[in-house]
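User: Okay, second chain of the day. Same drill as before: sequence in, structure tokens out.
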Amino acid sequence: MEDILELDRNNIPKSIAIIMDGNGRWAKEKGLPRAAGHLEGVETVTRITSECARLGVKYLTMYTFSTENWNRPEDEVAALMNLAATKLDDEIFMKNNIRLRLIGDLEQLPDRVKNRLRECMEKTKNNDRMTVTTALNYSSRWELTKTFQQVASDAAAGLVRPEDIDEEYVSRHLQTNFMTDPDLLIRTGGELRISNYLLWQCAYSEFYFCNTYWPDFKEEDLHRAIAEYQRRQRRFGMTGEQVEGK
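Assistant: Same drill. Structure tokens below.
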């Protein structure tokens, strides 16, 4: 497949995070149950995962289910858990040499979901083309709280001095310590917020919001997001002149 837009293949984001929003509204507008939107969204995950691998993205992180999503109607939660258990396709990962990782509180998930995720993570652990991270039963405030509890415990046990706790130390204790921070955060569905997702990690990410519902998000939409990313200048607190002079 050729690039739909003229992309600079030397400036593809190394790490992309996605908030996959709009499944329920997509289904509602079509007169379908919300579960049908989530099912269609799984097909989009497959397409976008394959395309990210083709483009050379190294880390793709997808917000699948937040800790707050337990407050949704029981039938929708049950449908989401069923999708997590039954629609996780090992062969997509194996065919594309992709490793699966998970961030979130796995222990609160139903046993069949936990077992299926662990099985797929074990099967794909040696794949090295790209890492897909599923944020499942995840929220950033939950992650940061757990991290700070661990750091405080280490300090109390004398394993680290408080003055040695810096940003790098905190990052190493986050659940995402195996990956680089997102260069680009994409949110579909028209909402302009990041909904408790990777708050620490996205401190310097470029944000891209689009109105397209996740089930309708195609490869060309991904290319538009990357093209917009490539038009921006990432300054990390410096001036534009400083960046250009590097």
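Residues 34-55 form the longest helix (22 residues).

User: Thanks, on to the next one.
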